Amino acid sequence: DKDEATPLHCAANNNSKETAEILISNGADINAKDKDEATPLHWAARDNSKETAEIFISNGVDLNAKGKDEATPLHCAANNNSKETAEILISNGADLNAKDKDEATPLHCAANNNSKETAEILISNGADINAKDKDEATPLHYAANNNSKETAEILISNGADINAKDEDGCTPLHYAARYNRKETAEILISNGADLNAKDKDEATPLHWVAQHNNSKETAEILISNGADINAKNKKWMDPSSLCSQ
Predict the structure, then answer these.
(1) Full pLDDT tens readout for the chain, 245 residues
(2) For the chain, how far is it from start to end, CA to CA, in angstroms?
(3) Are 9 and 16 in contact (CB under 8 A)?
(4) What DSSP line would sit under the chain, residue for residue?
(5) Burial group, residue 174, by CB count within 10 angstroms (0-12, 13-18, 19+)
(6) Which key words tag this protein in UniProt (predicted)?
(7) Is the sign of the CA dihedral 224, 225, 231, 233 positive or negative?
(8) Does residue 147 contact residue 155 with C-beta atoms inside 8 Å?
(9) Range 26-32, long-range pairs (CB < 8 A, 24+ positions)
(10) CB 96 within 8 A of CB 127
(11) Is the full-model pTM beyond 0.70?
(12) Smallest Cα–Cα separation from 119: which of 165, 161, 153, 92?
């Protein structure tokens, strides 16, 4: 079809396990790729077609096949919180810490989409909770960026580095501040995030609130918890100076 999907891709999409078995027994290519280089197993993982996924696996499908963005089926399961299929993939040896083109792992994907159940499954099976992508951001950075507060709580309770820094020296709290993720900011702060952590430009989370969104709510949360309102960045500017720009 226009997506270059085979009948086996369609069977995966609809969890048509009997049809999948017939196709495979008649020689269908179990690792066929569509226009995005996704295999039928990618489709099954995306749509949580767990029974069809089991059929593919029992017939020797490539568990860690990569699409054009280098995402594996486990990345797809994490993106869509397909927890049952994630469990099947993991129990059959899928790479928990496989990296896509951005060097993000399935746990990054789970955090990005607040797929909390899948995050728990990944962590309980040994996924690297502090894995870093190409920008040195961890899953907790992703959770903060997208206000995935439940997943943030899971990551923190399992030992995620709350003050991990990306390549620009930004912590998850910087991300929460920049994008006005006030609920996640509160979770980070209540669990000991450094209110006055400085990035490579010596800007604190409060600088980021002032510079990027001037959010009153997030600013109040930071200040009420002890953020330094007089902290100076590399240009010797405090947060109030940035607000007035």
Answers:
(1) 568 899 999 999 998 999 999 999 999 999 999 999 999 999 999 999 999 999 999 999 999 999 989 999 999 999 999 999 999 999 999 999 999 999 999 999 999 999 999 999 999 999 999 999 999 999 999 999 999 999 999 999 999 999 999 999 999 999 999 999 999 999 999 999 999 999 999 999 999 998 876 678 898 999 999 999 888 887 756 655 555 44
(2) 54
(3) no
(4) -TT---HHHHHHHTT-HHHHHHHHHTT--TT---TT---HHHHHHHTT-HHHHHHHHHTT--TT---TT---HHHHHHHTT-HHHHHHHHHTT--TT---TT---HHHHHHHTT-HHHHHHHHHTT--TT---TT---HHHHHHHTT-HHHHHHHHHTT--TT---TTS--HHHHHHHTT-HHHHHHHHHTT--TT---TT---HHHHIIIII--HHHHHHHHHTT--TT---TTS--HHHHHT-
(5) buried
(6) ANK repeat, Repeat
(7) negative
(8) no
(9) 30/56, 30/59, 30/60, 30/61, 31/61, 31/62, 31/65, 32/6, 32/8
(10) yes
(11) yes
(12) 153
For the domain made up of 1-128, give the CATH fold. Answer: 1.25.40
* pLDDT for residue 244: 46
Residue type, 138: T
- Our CA dihedral for 76, 77, 79, 83, rounded to 10 degrees, sits at 180
Whole-number Å distance between alpha carbons of 22 and 28: 9
Amino acid at 239: P
Structure tokens at 131: 């894995």
